[in-house]
Amino acid sequence: MNKFAEWMKCNDKKQRGVAEKLGISTSTLHDILRKNQLPSLKIAYEIEKYTRGAITVYDWIDQGNAEEEKENITKKPKATSKDKVKKIKK
């Protein structure tokens, strides 16, 4: 759960109401909350205003970098057909 999702839960905010206040669809908000999508700079700023600074634009930047780093660490390189041929020849 990301920081914004936690804030919404603690402040008893519903997705539909928050999405309306931010001017985005509920599906976009859902993707942001589930970390499937980072908000645009404009939406990140709107979130900062809406949460009165509890969630800042910089929170999203840090989260994006952390998620990218996590993906890079956990990804295993895929074997190519050339790699498979090399193993057979050995």
What would you say about this model in short?
With 90 residues, this protein is an all-alpha fold. The chain has helices at 3-10, 15-22, 26-33, 41-50, 57-74, 81-89. The protein has one domain: lambda repressor-like DNA-binding domains (434 Repressor (Amino-terminal Domain), Orthogonal Bundle), CATH 1.10.260.40.
Explain the overall architecture:
About 70% of the residues lie in helices and about 0% in strands. The chain is an all-alpha fold. The chain has a single domain (about 5-90), classed as lambda repressor-like DNA-binding domains (434 Repressor (Amino-terminal Domain), Orthogonal Bundle). The model has no long low-confidence stretch (mean pLDDT about 85).
Notable characteristics:
90 residues; 434 Repressor (Amino-terminal Domain); 0% strand; mainly alpha; 6 helices
Write the layout of secondary structure elements.
Elements: H1 3-10, H2 15-22, H3 26-33, H4 41-50, H5 57-74, H6 81-89
Helix pairs in contact: 2-3
